[in-house]
């Protein structure tokens, strides 16, 4: 799909900014040094700076941070870590140990994305404050593509929504602040959720600190949208059916790179392939419905083959020209086509036999056409077959979210089966999912009739009132939000999955992802009052800001920030929205995610 | 590193009471010691002004009181300074927004550069014009005065303090002494959602008030509790976290955390011991009946796994165990994995045997659906293919549910149990994937009611027998004749199809 013009807004600059800042941090420890890197940060650093750049700035050896210190090489060691207590404890132990054997060693610690109070407290406690030199490196958004930015904070979902640790929000705010520095302060803001509020709050604090010179910059971005992942849990829980979504679900896309397994590449080892719009074939298929991808690839492959075949009838001169100019391109094209075709094949091979039933159940739950008994039976079968834990939990959660919770009895029955299949330790996982609101149950036991003394009508009424008060209130819960936001498309209107005009194509026409839907409504001119009313239904509070009326024309560029992970289904929906609303939409997130990533991050291991 | 190791790991570090002043200047390589010595020099030279200021501090007991005051006193410091240094009258005014300004200046202050500047400026002032040098001097003195406040006896109002911490600037909470101030600080921190700030303010309260007050104040601040518990958990300080949650009356969380802690036990038997013990504490809450039941089941399962493993280790040479050596220990595996193991290796043993699948099923009340799926998968792994009727018998011979279903199957034909509980098409695909022989597949395919689905399954799994049966049932002679070509001549299926073509009365 073609993208709307660049509008003079170049995200490549972020790449430079990040690597320059990293270099500056490294140069804070001038001279030769060894790097010891938190395993969690490897992929991110890889995207920011290559090994050659690091070596240019004095890096001799690089190690992954482990419990035992690596051998001493240079007189300086630079630890690059997340501000987690256990990691910091490792670092402290390394420093203590090295101090004994090599007192001359200088230790530097670079905390990504920011130094937190528990980190400094721990250093103090270990007697290392003032001995190790602390540095902070707050990365800016890493451009995974022209329209997709990521901070690669893969733990954000768990940290923020489960553990209540929103400390990452300050660094997210700094990244947004950098964008404001480049493209001007964004006049319109729509934010919803706790993390979103934390980001905006920190953004205010940072703006107050910053140099005011930036404020006269004319705004190049018209809208800022900030959403917490919990504004729409249904989207990550549903199986993705776009090609890019399927790649992420089956092979995993990390920091914009997929690792194709042996079966796909047809060689002895798996291969890492960057996925972005520079690859024109990929750009054409990434957002397509999976069912239409292979036929498109085959058509293209025939074209390429046709062109190569023409070469056979060429004169020598023509042939020469062909070899010089076209052959290489065609060969490359053919290779890419081949790669994606075998990826399609492999996905089809791995797809469950009952994938159709799975989709029917998921979509039935969302649209409300499936009976709860059928859905529960299917779920119980999946559990009894011991399908992967994350897959079973996704369906378990999807049922809960879409049906506004289980009855206590059903919850306990299904939980018992899940725990027998996957281990009792997942009692903790279930507890976590309940904390997140991904699973809920109500105690409204329907024992009105079975109650022994319920014969008199007065008593019965009382009990009825009691029961109804326990039921989810009208106008709240997912179903109400769904209605209000019109997330379920009219089933009478057919949806063309292969030439989509409506965002719901990313879920076979059964559901429109909520975040793109809200953004779309705003871009189409929904006023703040009705928007505020709508957002009220979603969990959390919202913040809306708009510029004083009568101000200058608002640029048709929107920045959408999803906190806790964005799925490729949403990315595809947004790309379609960008076309239909002729707006440039810049997507930013803590990370790209799938329901499986999300659930696994909160599962007991 | 596993959890148990971590436990010991953290245990070895005596949790020092966390020190409250926390200077951290990201821009400076000067450590705290460098700072303090430089600082003392600066402080000495301004001793004249310091006492007055600190006196002010003792007057204002509450920071909160100090913040609300109007901006009228904003100029008090600067006015006092520009007039006469001795007249600095901060003590009369309340600390207000000017505090913010000082805070910012405190920040920009770099000790060594200040003293150098002072000396050079001092000597140069003789040559300069009188008033200009005075202004210069005043600026310098003002700076020194601000510095002399020191982070010890100078306190910012909560919102400024919170912003400083968010921005990673130096701060000290020491002067937040009244409970009111501490709580105001925590509440301001909670308003930002930033756990880095929340953590340090909560810790300040924790370290400076007695436990009962701490608990009382945390009661109404859920996010603060979450942040503090998260901290304790990261330090593997489970005992304190559980105790804390218990004091807050959050029994469910305390119970779940206790359970999590029991899982970090070093050996399976220790886990069982700790689980049993944990059931007596937070799990005794009647609202947690389901959870405590699950923990009981877990403890029971581990005990059974230990016993089975022990027995099987003594019988490694047995035929099944040597033909299909187990991939891993069953200890720590799930209930269904254990059942799978038992139905693989101990299918035929009597119910009194420790590893009898029947006994395991009974002792944990596993649902029929789960038993059937697991047993089918388990037997398939050892290339044994129980027919639907075998399963009827196996399920039926055991227990009340079994008796009922065997009665049902007697009434309604073979394979009733499988048919009633499992999606047969998925069973067939599973068996086909496990290379089950065609006659077994056919037996299962027959259980499907819909002839269309039956045909689809039969064709997909290449079960000739099932295909023939469907065509006979459909009375579709042409299709059967066509299909005959697919079947190897002379095979039993071929014969069957041929006979059928002769015998059955076909539609015309």
Automatic annotation (TrEMBL), chain A:
<protein>
    <submittedName>
        <fullName>STXBP unc-18 S1</fullName>
    </submittedName>
</protein>
<keyword id="KW-1133">Transmembrane helix</keyword>
<dbReference type="InterPro" id="IPR043154">
    <property type="entry name" value="Sec-1-like_dom1"/>
</dbReference>
<keyword id="KW-0812">Transmembrane</keyword>
<dbReference type="InterPro" id="IPR036045">
    <property type="entry name" value="Sec1-like_sf"/>
</dbReference>
<dbReference type="GO" id="GO:0016192">
    <property type="term" value="P:vesicle-mediated transport"/>
</dbReference>
<dbReference type="InterPro" id="IPR043155">
    <property type="entry name" value="VPS33_dom3b"/>
</dbReference>
<dbReference type="InterPro" id="IPR001619">
    <property type="entry name" value="Sec1-like"/>
</dbReference>
<dbReference type="Pfam" id="PF00995">
    <property type="entry name" value="Sec1"/>
</dbReference>
<comment type="similarity">
    <text>Belongs to the STXBP/unc-18/SEC1 family.</text>
</comment>
<dbReference type="InterPro" id="IPR027482">
    <property type="entry name" value="Sec1-like_dom2"/>
</dbReference>
<keyword id="KW-0472">Membrane</keyword>
<feature type="transmembrane region" description="Helical">
    <location>
        <begin position="557"/>
        <end position="578"/>
    </location>
</feature>
TrEMBL record, chain B:
<dbReference type="InterPro" id="IPR006925">
    <property type="entry name" value="Vps16_C"/>
</dbReference>
<dbReference type="GO" id="GO:0005769">
    <property type="term" value="C:early endosome"/>
</dbReference>
<keyword id="KW-0968">Cytoplasmic vesicle</keyword>
<keyword id="KW-0967">Endosome</keyword>
<dbReference type="GO" id="GO:0099023">
    <property type="term" value="C:vesicle tethering complex"/>
</dbReference>
<dbReference type="InterPro" id="IPR040057">
    <property type="entry name" value="Spe-39"/>
</dbReference>
<dbReference type="InterPro" id="IPR038132">
    <property type="entry name" value="Vps16_C_sf"/>
</dbReference>
<feature type="domain" description="Vps16 C-terminal">
    <location>
        <begin position="182"/>
        <end position="313"/>
    </location>
</feature>
<dbReference type="GO" id="GO:0007034">
    <property type="term" value="P:vacuolar transport"/>
</dbReference>
<protein>
    <recommendedName>
        <fullName>Vps16 C-terminal domain-containing protein</fullName>
    </recommendedName>
</protein>
<dbReference type="GO" id="GO:0006886">
    <property type="term" value="P:intracellular protein transport"/>
</dbReference>
<dbReference type="Pfam" id="PF04840">
    <property type="entry name" value="Vps16_C"/>
</dbReference>
<dbReference type="GO" id="GO:0005770">
    <property type="term" value="C:late endosome"/>
</dbReference>
């Amino acid at each position: 799909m073609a993208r709307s013009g660049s509008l003079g807004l170049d995200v490549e600059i972020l790449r430079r900014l990040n690597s320059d800042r990293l270099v500056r941090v490294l140069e804070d420890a001038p001279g030769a040094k060894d790097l010891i890197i938190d395993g969690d940060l490897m992929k991110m650093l890889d995207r920011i700076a290559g090994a050659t750049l690091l070596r240019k700035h004095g890096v001799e050896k690089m190690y992954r941070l482990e419990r035992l210190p690596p051998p001493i090489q240079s007189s300086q060691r630079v630890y690059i870590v997340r501000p987690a207590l256990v990691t910091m404890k490792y670092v402290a132990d390394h420093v203590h140990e090295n101090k004994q054997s090599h007192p001359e060693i200088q230790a530097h610690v670079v905390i990504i994305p920011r130094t937190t109070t528990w980190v400094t407290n721990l250093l103090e406690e270990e007697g290392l404050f003032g001995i190790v030199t602390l540095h902070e490196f707050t990365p800016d958004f890493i451009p995974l593509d022209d329209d997709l930015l990521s901070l690669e904070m893969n733990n954000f979902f768990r940290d923020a929504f489960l553990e209540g640790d929103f400390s990452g929000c300050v660094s997210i705010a700094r990244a947004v602040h950098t964008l404001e520095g480049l493209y001007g302060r964004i006049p319109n803001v729509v934010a919803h959720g706790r993390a979103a509020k934390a980001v905006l709050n920190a953004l205010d604090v940072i703006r107050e600190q910053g140099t005011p010179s930036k404020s006269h910059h004319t705004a190049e971005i018209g809208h800022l949208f900030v959403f917490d992942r919990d504004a729409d849990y249904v989207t990550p829980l549903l199986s993705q059916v776009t090609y890019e979504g399927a790649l992420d679900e089956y092979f995993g896309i990390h920091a914009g790179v997929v690792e194709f397994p042996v079966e796909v590449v047809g060689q002895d080892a798996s291969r890492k392939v960057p996925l972005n719009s520079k690859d024109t074939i990929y750009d054409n298929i990434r957002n397509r419905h999976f069912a239409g991808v292979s036929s498109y690839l085959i058509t293209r492959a025939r074209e390429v083959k046709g062109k190569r075949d023409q070469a056979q009838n060429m004169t020598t001169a023509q042939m020469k020209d062909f070899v010089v100019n076209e052959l290489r391109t065609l060969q490359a094209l053919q290779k890419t086509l081949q790669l994606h075709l075998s990826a399609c094949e492999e996905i089809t091979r791995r797809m469950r036999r009952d994938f159709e039933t799975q989709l029917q159940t998921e979509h039935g739950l969302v649209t409300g056409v499936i009976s709860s008994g059928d859905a529960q039976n299917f779920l119980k079968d999946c559990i009894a077959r011991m399908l992967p834990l994350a897959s079973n939990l996704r369906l378990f959660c999807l049922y809960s979210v879409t049906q506004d919770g289980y009855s206590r009895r059903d919850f306990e029955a299904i939980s018992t089966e899940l725990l027998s299949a996957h281990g009792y330790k997942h009692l903790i996982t279930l507890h976590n999912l309940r904390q997140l609101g991904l699973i809920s149950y109500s105690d409204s036991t329907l024992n009105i009739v079975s109650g022994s003394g319920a014969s008199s009508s007065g008593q019965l009424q009382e009990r009825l009132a009691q029961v109804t008060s326990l039921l989810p209130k009208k106008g709240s819960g997912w179903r109400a939000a769904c209605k209000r936001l019109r997330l379920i498309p009219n089933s009478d209107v057919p949806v063309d999955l292969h030439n989509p005009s409506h965002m719901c194509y990313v879920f076979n026409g059964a559901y429109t992802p909520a975040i793109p839907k809200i953004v779309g409504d705003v871009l189409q001119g929904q006023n703040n009052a009705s928007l505020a009313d709508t957002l009220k239904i979603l969990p959390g509070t919202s913040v809306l800001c708009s510029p004083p009326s009568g101000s200058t024309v608002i640029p048709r560029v929107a920045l959408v920030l999803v906190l806790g992970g964005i799925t490729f289904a949403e990315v595809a929906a947004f790309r379609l929205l960008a076309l239909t609303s002729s707006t440039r939409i810049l997507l930013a997130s803590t990370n790209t995610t799938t329901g499986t990533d999300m659930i696994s991050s909160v599962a007991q291991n | 590193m596993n959890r148990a190791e971590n436990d010991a790991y953290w245990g070895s570090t005596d949790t020092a009471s966390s020190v409250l002043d926390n200077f951290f200047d990201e821009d400076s390589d000067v450590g705290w010691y460098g700072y303090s010595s430089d600082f003392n020099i600066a402080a000495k030279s301004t001793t004249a002004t310091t006492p007055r200021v600190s006196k002010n501090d003792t007057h204002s007991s509450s920071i909160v009181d100090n913040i609300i005051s109007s901006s009228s006193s904003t100029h008090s410091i600067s006015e006092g300074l520009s007039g006469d240094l001795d007249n600095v009258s901060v003590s009369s005014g309340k600390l207000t927004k000017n505090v913010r300004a000082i805070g910012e200046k405190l920040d920009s202050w770099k000790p060594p550069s200040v003293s150098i500047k002072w000396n050079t400026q001092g000597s140069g002032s003789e040559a300069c014009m009188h008033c200009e040098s005075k202004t210069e001097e005043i600026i310098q003195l003002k700076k020194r005065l601000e510095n002399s406040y020191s982070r010890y006896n100078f306190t910012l109002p909560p919102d400024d303090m919170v912003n400083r911490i968010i921005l990673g600037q130096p701060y000290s909470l020491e002067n937040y002494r009244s409970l009111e101030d501490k709580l105001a600080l925590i509440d301001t921190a909670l308003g930002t959602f930033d756990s880095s700030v929340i953590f340090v303010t909560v810790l300040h309260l924790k370290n400076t008030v007695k436990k009962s007050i701490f608990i009382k104040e945390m009661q109404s601040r859920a996010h603060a509790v979450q942040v503090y518990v998260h901290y304790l958990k990261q330090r593997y300080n489970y005992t304190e976290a559980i105790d804390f949650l218990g004091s807050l009356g959050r029994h469910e969380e305390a119970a779940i955390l206790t359970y999590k802690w029991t899982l970090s036990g070093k050996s399976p038997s220790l886990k069982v011991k700790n689980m049993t013990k944990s059931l007596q504490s937070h799990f005794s809450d009647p609202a947690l009946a389901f959870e405590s039941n699950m923990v009981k089941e877990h403890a029971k399962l581990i005990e059974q796994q230990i016993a089975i493993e022990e027995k099987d280790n003594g019988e490694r040479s047995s035929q099944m165990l040597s033909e299909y050596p187990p991939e891993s220990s069953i200890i720590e595996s799930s209930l269904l994995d254990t059942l799978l193991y038992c139905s693989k290796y101990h299918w035929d043993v009597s119910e009194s045997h420790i590893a009898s699948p029947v006994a395991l099923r009974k002792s944990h009340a596993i649902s029929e659906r789960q038993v059937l799926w697991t047993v089918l998968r388990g037997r398939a792994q050892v290339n044994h293919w129980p027919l639907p009727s075998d399963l009827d018998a196996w399920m039926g011979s055991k227990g009340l549910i079994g008796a009922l279903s065997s009665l049902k199957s007697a009434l309604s034909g073979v394979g009733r149990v499988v048919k009633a509980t499992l999606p047969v098409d998925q069973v067939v695909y599973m068996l086909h994937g496990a290379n089950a022989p065609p006659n077994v597949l056919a037996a299962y395919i027959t259980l499907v009611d819909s002839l269309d689905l039956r045909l689809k399954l039969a064709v997909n799994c290449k079960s000739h027998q099932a295909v023939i049966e469907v065509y006979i049932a459909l009375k579709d002679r042409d299709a059967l004749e066509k299909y005959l070509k697919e079947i190897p001549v002379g095979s039993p299926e071929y014969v069957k199809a041929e006979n059928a073509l002769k015998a059955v009365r076909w539609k015309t």
